[in-house]
C-alpha cells in the first residue's frame, strides 16, 4: 500500500493560518492503514489546530470529513454540497488523493496534510518498508521475489556491489542489502544459477522515465 | 591472450608480463596541472594510469578530461566510469568521446552511492549497473552498435576492465559475480585493496578452479597504509574493505614516525607474496594522495623497469 507520514503541525498551521474556514479531509484507504490520514488522524489534527488557534486568539473554523477513498471520483462527489463553504481544504490522503480532490474542485485551494513516501508493507505497527517502485515491468520472477529496483540502493540488476557488508547496504547499516536478500532467497529456492546470467539493461520506459503513466484497460471500460 | 586493441596495458599482459597500474584522483577544482603533476611522478613506473571518476561521490574534475590530459602527455590512461551519475546516453557519448582521443582502456564501475560524497542530496541515475556497462562497451566495440541500435563506425577500441571486491558479502557470490563480469565482457579486473590475504587467496583459488583467471587478467589491488589511523579508518569506516586486526597491530606497533615506512614495507611484502600466486597477472597500486610513493613501491617490489612495448 501507499505509505505516508503526517506533515509536522507547524507546516500545516503555516498553510492555513490566513483563512477563516478550513475543511480537513481524510481518506479511509492506504493512509488509514499507516495511520497518517484516516478518520482518527483527521480528528487529532483538527483538535490540535483548534487548540493552537484558540490559544493564539485567532478565529479559524475547522471542520472534518473522511471519504472512503480520495482517489475515486464517486467518493469525492460526496463533498460537492459542502465544499464551497470553505476557504481551503487540507487533504490527508496520499498525493494522488490530494491531486484528485483539487482536480475535482478546480477553484478550491487544496493543501497536502501528509508526506506521501512510497509503496510498502507493514513490518509491524508503525514500521513500514518500501517494496516496489512501480517500474511497470516486474522482474520479481528472476530475482527470488525480492525487488532489486526498490531494495538495492543502487538499483543494480546484476548486484551485489562491493559495498555489501554483513548483509547490510553500504549506504546505511540499518538498510538490508537487497542483493544479500536475493542471494539468500535464490539459495533457498535452489536457483542460484540464475545469478550468473548477466541481466540486460532495463527498459525504463514503462517506469516514470516514459513520462506520466496511464493504464487503459479496454476490457474493463464501460 | 592475444591483444586486440591498441591498449598498451593489454599488450603488456598479452606478452606475459606482470602489469602495473596505478591511479590519479583529479582535484576538486579545475586545475588540470594537478593531474599532470601526479602522472609525472608515476609515469615511468606503471603501464597505465587509472583516473578515478568522482570517487567516493565527491565532485571532481571529470575523469574523461583528465584522461585526455594524460593522453596528450603521451601516457596511457584507464578511464574509470561510474554509472551513478550518467544514463546510458551520457555514458555511451563519453565512451565515443574518449575513443576519439585514442583512449583505449576503460574500467566499468557502478560507483559509490552519493550518500558518501559532497552532494548527498543529489538524484542518482543508475540507469545501468557495472555489468551492463561492460556489456555496452563490448557491444560498441565488437558489434559496432549502440544500445539503441545505431551503428558506430569507427568502433571504440577499448580494453575493458571491471573491479572485483573479494571481501564484500556474501562471500559465496564473489566468484560467481566475477564470472558474470567476465561473461559480460571484462578482460581485466582490478581488485579492491587487499589486506586479508587468506580471504583473497581463497577467492583466487575458487576463481582459478572455474578457469576465470584464464579469462580475465586479475590485477591485485594494493594500497599502502600511511599510519595506524588510516588502518583503523579503513577497517571500521569504509564499506567492503577488510583489514584484519594483525595489520592494524603491525602498523600501530611501530613508532609514529616509522608507520609510513611500515605501510610501504607491508605493501611490498604483499606484492612479493602475490607475485607467486597463479592467476595474479599484475598489480593495481592505489596510493591515495600518496602518489610519490608509487615509484619506490614498484622498484622495491622488483617490478621495475617496466617492459618496453610498442
Ligand atoms: S520489479 Fe518493478 S514492479 Fe516489480 S516489485 Fe520491483 S519495482 Fe515493483
Ligand atoms: S550494498 Fe547491497 S543494497 Fe546496497 S547498493 Fe550494494 S548491492 Fe545494493
Automatic annotation (TrEMBL), chain A:
Q: Which Pfam families match?
A: DUF5981 (PF12225)
Task: Supply the name of the protein.
Answer: Methylene-tetrahydrofolate reductase C-terminal-like domain-containing protein
Q: Which residues form the Methylene-tetrahydrofolate reductase C-terminal-like domain?
A: 111-204
Q: Which organism is it from?
A: Desulfobacca acetoxidans (strain ATCC 700848 / DSM 11109 / ASRB2)
UniProtKB/TrEMBL annotation, chain B:
Pathway named in the protein's UniProt entry:
Amino-acid biosynthesis; L-methionine biosynthesis via de novo pathway; One-carbon metabolism; tetrahydrofolate interconversion
One GO MF term? methylenetetrahydrofolate reductase (NADH) activity
Return one Gene Ontology term, BP aspect: tetrahydrofolate interconversion
Q: Does the keyword Methyltransferase apply?
A: no
Q: Which domain of life is it from?
A: Bacteria
Q: Which PANTHER family match?
A: METHYLENETETRAHYDROFOLATE REDUCTASE, METHYLENETETRAHYDROFOLATE REDUCTASE (NADPH)
Q: Which family does it belong to?
A: Belongs to the methylenetetrahydrofolate reductase family.
Kindly provide the name given to this protein in its UniProt entry: Methylenetetrahydrofolate reductase
Q: Which species is this UniProt entry from?
A: Desulfobacca acetoxidans (strain ATCC 700848 / DSM 11109 / ASRB2)
Amino acid at each position: 500500500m501507499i505509505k505516508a507520514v503526517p506533515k509536522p503541525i507547524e507546516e500545516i498551521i503555516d498553510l492555513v493560518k490566513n483563512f477563516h474556514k478550513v475543511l480537513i479531509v481524510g481518506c479511509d484507504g492506504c493512509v488509514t492503514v499507516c495511520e497518517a490520514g484516516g478518520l482518527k488522524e483527521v480528528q487529532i489534527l483538527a483538535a490540535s489546530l483548534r487548540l493552537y488557534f484558540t490559544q493564539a486568539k485567532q478565529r479559524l473554523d475547522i471542520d472534518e470529513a473522511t471519504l472512503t477513498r480520495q482517489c475515486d471520483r464517486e467518493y469525492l462527489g460526496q463533498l460537492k454540497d459542502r465544499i464551497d463553504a470553505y476557504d481551503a481544504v487540507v487533504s490527508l490522503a496520499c498525493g494522488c488523493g490530494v491531486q484528485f480532490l483539487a482536480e475535482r474542485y478546480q477553484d478550491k485551494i487544496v493543501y497536502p496534510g501528509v508526506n506521501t513516501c512510497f509503496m510498502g508493507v507493514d513490518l509491524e505497527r508503525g514500521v513500514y518498508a518500501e517494496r516496489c517502485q512501480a517500474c511497470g515491468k516486474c522482474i520479481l520472477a528472476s530475482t527470488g521475489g525480492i525487488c532489486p529496483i526498490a531494495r538495492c540502493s543502487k538499483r543494480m540488476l546484476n548486484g551485489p556491489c562491493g559495498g555489501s557488508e554483513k548483509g547490510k547496504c553500504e549506504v546505511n547499516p540499518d538498510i538490508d542489502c537487497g542483493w544479500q536478500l536475493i542471494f539468500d532467497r535464490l539459495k533457498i529456492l535452489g536457483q542460484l544459477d540464475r545469478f550468473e546470467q548477466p541481466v540486460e539493461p532495463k527498459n525504463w520506459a514503462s517506469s516514470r522515465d516514459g513520462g506520466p503513466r496511464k493504464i487503459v484497460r479496454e476490457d474493463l471500460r464501460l | 591472450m592475444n591483444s586486440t586493441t591498441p591498449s598498451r596495458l593489454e599488450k603488456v599482459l598479452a606478452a606475459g608480463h606482470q602489469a602495473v597500474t596505478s591511479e590519479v584522483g583529479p582535484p576538486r577544482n579545475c586545475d588540470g596541472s594537478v593531474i599532470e603533476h601526479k602522472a609525472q611522478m608515476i609515469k615511468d613506473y606503471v603501464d597505465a594510469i587509472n583516473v578515478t571518476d568522482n570517487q567516493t561521490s565527491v565532485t571532481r574534475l571529470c575523469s574523461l578530461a583528465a584522461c585526455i590530459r594524460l593522453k596528450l602527455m603521451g601516457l596511457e590512461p584507464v578511464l574509470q566510469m561510474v554509472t551513478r551519475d550518467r544514463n546510458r546516453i551520457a555514458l555511451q557519448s563519453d565512451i565515443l568521446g574518449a575513443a576519439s582521443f585514442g583512449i583505449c582502456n576503460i574500467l566499468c564501475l557502478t560507483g559509490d552511492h552519493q550518500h558518501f560524497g559532497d552532494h548527498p542530496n543529489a538524484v542518482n541515475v543508475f540507469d545501468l549497473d557495472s555489468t551492463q556497462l561492460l556489456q555496452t562497451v563490448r557491444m560498441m566495440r565488437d558489434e559496432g552498435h549502440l544500445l539503441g541500435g545505431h551503428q558506430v563506425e569507427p568502433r571504440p577500441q577499448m580494453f575493458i576492465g571491471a573491479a572485483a571486491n573479494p571481501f564484500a558479502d556474501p562471500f559465496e557470490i564473489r566468484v560467481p559475480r566475477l564470472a558474470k563480469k567476465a561473461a559480460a565482457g571484462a578482460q581485466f579486473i582490478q581488485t579492491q585493496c587487499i589486506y586479508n590475504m587468506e580471504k583473497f587467496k581463497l577467492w583466487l583459488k575458487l576463481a582459478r578452479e572455474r578457469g576465470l583467471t584464464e579469462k580475465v587478467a586479475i590485477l591485485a589491488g594494493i594500497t599502502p597504509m600511511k599510519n595506524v589511523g588510516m588502518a583503523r579508518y579503513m577497517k571500521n569506516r569504509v564499506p567492503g574493505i577488510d583489514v584484519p586486526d594483525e595489520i592494524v597491530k603491525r602498523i600501530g606497533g611501530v613508532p609514529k614516525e616509522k608507520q609510513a615506512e611500515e605501510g610501504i614495507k607491508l605493501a611490498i611484502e604483499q606484492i612479493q607474496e602475490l607475485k607467486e600466486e597463479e592467476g595474479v597477472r599484475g598489480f593495481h597500486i592505489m596510493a591515495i594522495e600518496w602518489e610519490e610513493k608509487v615509484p619506490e613501491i614498484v622498484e622495491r617490489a622488483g617490478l621495475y623497469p617496466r617492459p618496453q612495448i610498442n
